[in-house]
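Help wanted!
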Amino acid sequence: MFDKVLLKNTDVPNGHGIEAYEAAGGYRAWAKVLHEYQPDELIQLVKDSNLRGRGGAGFPTGVKFGFVPKDPALQKYLCCNADESEPGTFKDRVIMEKDPHQMIEGIAIGAYAIGADKAYIYIRGEYVLSIERTEAALKEAYRKGYLGERILGTDFNLEMFVHCGAGAYICGEETALLESFEGRRAQPKLKPPFPAVAGLYESPTVINNVETLACLPHIVQRGADWFRGIGPEGSPGPKLYCLSGHVRKPGLYELPMGISLRELVEDHAGGPRSGGRIKAVIPGGVSAPMIPESGLDVAMDFDSLAAVDTMLGSAGVIVLDETACVVRVAKRFTEFFNHESCGKCTPCREGLDWAVKILRRLEDGRGKHEDLDQLERLCGSIFGNSFCALGDGAAWALRAALKHFRDEFVRHIDDGRCPFH
Amino acid sequence: MAMGLRDKIEEVAGRYPNRRSAIMPALYLAQAEHAELSGEVLLEVADVLDVPEIWVYELATFYDMFHTEPVGKFHIQVCTNVSCLLLEAEGMVAHLESRLGIERGDTTPDGLFTLSTAECLGSCDTAPVMQVNYTNHENLSARRIDEILEKLRGAVGE
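Answered by r_m:
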């Protein structure tokens, strides 16, 4: 049994309240940071832990902190990306609803590391309970003096508040998030300049995922060596996995990285529901190419999944059994990407629209063999020519479905109907 | 514009370094007050914040949660994204269409229900899922949907 770290407080009644959080040792890491660490020592600690971002990209967090210019005259910001919208993903929602103080303490530590006296939590608008619980937790944290001015007798000030999203997946992309925060349409921006140098209001800004920040209090309290000791060297620390789809025990699981996808799905999540067989598993939210059953022995970590041309991403693990129609699933996630495309770039905006039209005809049994070639061409036009990861993810995922399950697409064409419905 | 709303927008605008950044929260406040963000409402938000009207319009039309058209008293949004799709979300939508006598995207003639499909609501382990005015209803079935509809109708004294 893996000793829970991130989900430790989530079963405690009223675990979202500050009394429960403090009783479990909460905010001691924050006090330790304020009284015992210089910012660069803290950055070094995070680098030593080899914590990698849990939003999707897996970028080393300490390295990102280190990019922020040290000039104390510059205004700096820390943004918590709580826009969780990658289909199949719900880990951040559980943290916000059940243990918001863990996230708040993590944000505070991150802000201190980079010298930010302002931190914003961008929460997707649909997460009404998350917003409510986070705002209530912020009030409690201010009341107890963990936020505000001259915190815990030091001269560090930190203002933290919630900014609500309003239903746009693209706001999970960090530059689009900043645009949205500034009151613009959420269209991604060119990098460089990177946000760490010129982000919110052109000021140095670090954007981190909720789960990434939630790791920080634990790293401070228990040390970099402890964190690195969990799971493989290249992907250390406790990881939250979101299991859904055709699996017996869907839910949120906290386990090390490095376990196989097969072990995760079959041993922990109970395997395929009622006597079924697994056809494929999406390992990291729908942007991550699906893995057919034959590939399930891959290790769940950043590098192993990258090596088989997919990704850990948001760890949204969606299981498809033999009753699932891959064409229908591919159609649906392509519709999602098309809907959520910000519209700025032609390959994504036009290419995905076209791909949806083709996929709808295919699913309806009105497809032609040339359609498969056209879908390949569209994927090629979008992938690598996209301004941001939305287009890339859409093309990558669709291409994988076509590659691993071409026979299902062909059957739709030859049968003139969907064989599964 | 009601003084209450103007004050609320001013208060939230005070948190941000510039007025443009307050447009999203201002639109939420205006939508809560007016139910739908009509042209006049958008103009008034622009007026309170003292920003060009186009800045307000472009956000109201970009984000899915801002409604520039009327929405029923109960906005039912059923997730049909992959995890919910695999667990019969389309069947739930069809059941609602049949019960409400409307198609997805439409509002019932009495203005009580608007039925939409939604993207992932982040509750995939309890699929299929729908939101009614941003309250989640999980582990749906035809029967549970009927119970929920009955409760909603009962709440307005039908």
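OP: Thanks! One thing I noticed: The helical segments of chain B are 3-13, 23-34, 39-49, 53-60, 82-86, 89-100, 142-155.
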